[in-house]
From TrEMBL:
Catalytic function, reaction form: NAD(+) + (ADP-D-ribosyl)n-acceptor = nicotinamide + (ADP-D-ribosyl)n+1-acceptor + H(+)
Taxonomic path: Eukaryota, Fungi, Dikarya, Ascomycota, Pezizomycotina
GO cellular component, one term: nucleolus
PANTHER family (alphabetical): DNA LIGASE (PTHR10459), POLY [ADP-RIBOSE] POLYMERASE 2 (PTHR10459:SF60)
Keyword Repressor: no
Renumbered residue ranges of the record's region Disordered: 109-161
Designated name of the protein: Poly [ADP-ribose] polymerase
Sequence ranges assigned to domain BRCT in this UniProt record: 3-98
Biological processes per GO annotation: double-strand break repair; protein poly-ADP-ribosylation
Main enzyme class: transferase
Domain of life: Eukaryota
Length: 687
């Protein structure tokens, strides 16, 4: 289905770095092709625009380096792209350029000659529907006596041969892990239109009992690839999943026939609506090779880890706690918990399954946007097909009573997609971390931690200098807010870091504006968790729904905070004297009047709370700090935020609800991650 406004026509767009606000590379790919443009993953010199994160520019990712020496290529923020899509018109890219002085310096001082793009002047027939991915391979000349793929490659596709040689490393890296035999000199075929012949196929099958109830979802997955040997100049067709098949005879035809047999669609029409009862085509998820190398190159030579400036010793120390090799069983347990019991016995690798799930979710997301005004029957049918495949992928076959996919209200399915996308991002980070700690023997410790730091995607993590006023105030807050008599220990900070997550400030400020009538109670509070959980918390943020995602009708859990450091430390599963404990100090918007204990709607009924003027829930303790003060004394950026005045002592709480006094100390609950700004990360011990 083509876009009614192909305003991206004649543009070629690539992406580099992690995008904020829940967007992924697949969003840029899908929308670029929907609106008449072309998405490029490998040949950056052929692009007109590179949508990049500021971090990708700061550390000079590979794509950024190539883009900066390409004449006329504009490196822009994601705002340019998504605002253009929202308005369905091309905005002025000059207003969204990233690091203009940096780009000029690169263009002027680079020893490499500027790369001039070849402009494609091919006219597009407006009557011909634009496919969602790259153009189909060009047909061979009628004068040719044999098919192009039967000729030596250099003669049949001279430009293609050149491009494949340039991208040999990337095209070799995506060969399926189940490929039999050596991968030396092999690449996944990329044709003259830059289309990579790589497809994941998924089909769901359900186990149904005598009562007609679904008792299990069982995914059937296959991966098709057209491989090319650079040395022998021969093609091979490979299919993996339900039994390995590798066939060197007529590989192009075999690939296309196999694809059509499984999906009911031709390879050229692979983006058409999937057929009921057939396999669903899932495209490869585009990711920065730099980010992939961050976690998986084990030779100690990856350029990203080496290019990162030496981190402060305190940062290495706390990262060593989070990414310690002893965390492996805890990371595995965390993957199991976050996935709700899923992915524990899947026949396919966890990372591959997650990628396939991500790609499926992007197709579901496309339907929730409903930009092309599908009829509800058509939309319901497609959501049913894709949704069943998704559940088959993401639900373990031994689970009791797996959910039945149903079409939710449109307002709810968007929220479900958003939550599920965040969960998949967390699961990906956990699986990355698992590979990182499991394959750390061949790489120096600092290189591993450099990769780990980059993988967390923090905008900044700066040690607060011991001895300065900010550090003294924070140490005083942590130590004097603990209650040793109640919890049996006191909290002693080891290292304190000022942290910032990309996009979190903007999200927090937006929440303040949208809920202007309800906000007005920012507090500086503690949040504690096990060491393994920080991989997800620092990279994805605090989330309320990590273990309650079932179907689009799922309830929401809350995010808990305390104003007593020792109470939050109790959630860290510490051992006395153990340096492997961490907690957050967050700026939390609890509103003008938190919902008191005993009257809050069940499971955080946010709409009902808003109607009553609440955006948080307070389980008031029997005692409270006698006074609260302005946190601007800690740091100017905290002006207006309230924190306990630990010098005032404690007294009987004034916030207790009649009949409630079972909690010794305050516990605050919020339901929207946008109410939270992570401010400080504290590594501590207890005594």
């Amino acid at each position: 289905m083509t876009s009614p406004v192909p305003f991206l026509k004649n543009l070629t767009i690539a992406v580099s770095g992690h995008l904020s606000n829940g967007f992924v590379h697949g969003d840029v790919q899908r929308l670029t092709e929907r609106y008449g443009g072309r998405f490029e993953d490998l040949d950056i010199a052929a692009c007109t625009h590179l949508v990049a994160s500021q971090r990708a520019v700061d550390v000079e990712f590979r794509k950024v380096q190539e883009a900066s020496i390409t004449e006329g290529l504009q490196i822009v923020s994601q705002d340019w792209f998504f605002q253009s899509v929202e308005k369905e018109m091309l905005l002025d890219a000059k207003k969204f350029l990233l690091r203009i002085p940096f780009r000029k310096k690169r263009s002027k001082d680079s020893e490499k000659p500027s790369v001039k793009k070849e402009v494609d002047n091919t006219k597009v027939d407006k009557k011909t529907p634009k496919k969602l991915q790259e153009k189909p391979p060009a047909k061979p000349s009628a004068k040719a006596s044999e098919k192009p793929h039967e000729k030596p490659l250099a003669k049949a596709y001279p430009k293609t041969h050149e491009k494949i040689n340039e991208k040999e490393q990337e095209l070799n890296a995506i060969i399926d892990d189940d490929h039999v035999g050596p991968k030396t000199d092999l690449v996944v075929w990329m044709d003259e239109n830059h289309l990579i012949w790589d497809a994941i196929l998924i089909k769901d099958s359900s186990s149904i009992n005598s009562k007609g109830t679904v008792t299990a979802y069982i995914p059937e997955m296959e991966r098709l690839q057209l491989l090319y040997n650079l040395k022998t100049k021969t093609f091979h067709f490979g299919a993996w999943g339900m039994g390995t098949r590798q066939d060197p005879k007529s590989p192009h035809a075999k690939f296309e026939k196999y694809f059509q047999d499984r999906t009911g669609l031709s390879w050229e029409n692979r983006w058409d609506d999937p057929k009921e009862g057939k396999y669903v085509f899932v495209p490869r998820i585009f990711e920065d090779v730099e980010m992939e190398d961050t976690f998986f190159s084990g030779d100690g030579k990856d350029s990203l880890a080496l290019s990162i400036t030496q981190l402060p010793s305190a940062v290495y120390e706390v990262l060593g706690v989070i990414f310690d090799h002893n965390q492996k069983p805890h990371i595995e347990e965390s993957i199991k918990n976050v996935s709700g019991g899923r992915l524990t016995r899947q026949p396919w690798r966890v990372r591959f399954t997650l990628r396939a799930a991500q790609s499926l979710l992007e197709r579901i997301s496309e339907l929730t946007l409903d930009r092309f005004q599908r009829g509800n029957d058509s939309r319901a049918k497609l959501l049913s097909i894709l949704g069943k495949c998704y559940l088959a992928l993401m639900w373990h076959s031994d689970l009791d009573a797996p959910p039945k996919w149903g079409l939710p209200a449109r307002s709810k399915d968007k929220n479900w997609v958003k939550r599920e996308r965040a969960a998949l991002g967390l699961l990906n980070n956990l699986s990355f971390a698992l590979d990182l700690v499991a394959n750390s023997t061949n790489v120096s410790k600092n290189q591993i931690l450099n990769r780990a730091y980059r993988g967390l995607g923090l905008a900044s993590m700066t040690p607060v200098e011991p001895g300065n006023a900010e550090h003294k105030a924070l140490v005083n807050f942590v130590i004097n807010s603990s209650v040793p008599r109640a919890h049996g220990f006191s909290v002693q900070p080891i290292n304190i870091f000022r942290i910032e997550r990309e996009g979190e400030i903007e999200r927090f400020e937006k929440y303040q504006k949208v809920h202007s009538t309800l906000v007005g109670g920012r507090r500086l509070l503690f949040h504690g968790s096990r060491a393994v959980n920080w991989i997800g918390i620092l990279s994805q943020g605090l989330r309320s729904d990590a273990q309650t995602r079932v179907t689009p009708e799922s309830p929401v859990k809350g995010i808990y905070f305390a104003d007593v450091s020792s109470k939050s430390a109790g959630y860290c599963r510490y051992a006395p004297g153990d340096p492997g404990s961490c907690m957050l100090i967050c700026e939390v918007e609890v509103g003008k009047k938190p919902q008191p204990c005993g009257s809050a709607p069940a499971l955080g009924d946010i709409k009902a709370m808003h109607k009553q003027g609440h955006i948080s829930y307070l389980a008031a303790g029997a005692t409270d700090f006698s006074k609260w003060c302005d946190a601007g004394a800690v740091h100017p950026s905290l002006a207006g935020v309230q924190m306990p005045d630990t010098s005032s002592g404690r007294s009987v709480s004034k916030m207790l609800s009649p009949g409630f006094g079972k909690y010794p100390h305050n516990e605050w609950v919020v339901y929207d991650p946008a109410q939270i700004r992570q401010r400080y990360f504290v590594q501590f011990t207890t005594k």
